[in-house]
Input
Amino acid sequence: YHRECFISSGINAEYNFTPDFTLTPSVLQDYHTHGYILLRNFLSPAEVTNTLRVFQETDVIERFGYGIPDTSGRMPRMVLWNSPGSDVTGMICRCEKVVRTSEQLLGGEVYHYHSKMVMKEPRIGGRQEWHQDYGYWYNNGLLTPDALSVFIPLDRCTRENGCLQVIAGSHKCGKIEHSFAAGQTGADLKRVEEILGDNTGRFRHFYVEMSPGDALFFHSNVLHMSEPNDSEKIRRALILAYNRKENTAGRLEVAGHHPMYSPIDRVPDSAIASCDNFSDFAGKDFLLPENDKTVKASK
Output
């Protein structure tokens, strides 16, 4: 595909990723101050194209995909897996640039907590309510929010097709109360409104428009949401989650539907583009919606 880059929208903590990119003290400070860093061009066009083949050339969405209704009845669809596997998406989950960056941001060894592909179909894909990822993971035995997510679009993400929105600095608010909002787990909207209305300059609301292959690494307590896709173009994105090794749930029965610590079998970054496994999903441990107690899903 032809890559079209977005001009900076004024979001804080935005960098252009190159093979020799390093997390300097100022980059780390941006993460701790704002709760995220945005790395443009994190995946190459060849890596994005190879990844899309997994979802375009197989029936993985039909077999394992499910929707989570928003408050209007529309729903984004997703496919979620607990273990990386050895297909192209597994190479992304296990590659050095993802794992190394996650470990530097979180300050220690991480393990793959889970990953998913979220799809908003044209005119159908619904809203993702305001939430913190730790609002979900708190109920899966994570004692601290020492975890993060990596949002990597496979299509252009614009305001028209429901790009991610974040509140910079909101990770400093701590865990906010969450409850069911239709089929989703959403943050206390009164609290969200208070944060958005704060006039001290501590928090800023951004629409994170992204090109395919950009990556947003964000703290598990950052408030984020996305609007429905009211455009004629599909919006697909990978979301990879990583947790600190020592933050693993203490007991299997507490961990629920996500895994406890297991070391990552790392691969070089070159494995993403060179991988030719698009359909062997052995060992990925896809999540069945009836086993996820934090959502009310629909096939």
User: Anything to note?
Assistant: Residues 1-8 have pLDDT under 50 and may be disordered. The radius of gyration is 18 Å. Residues 45-56 form the longest helix (12 residues). The chain is about 20% helix and 25% strand.
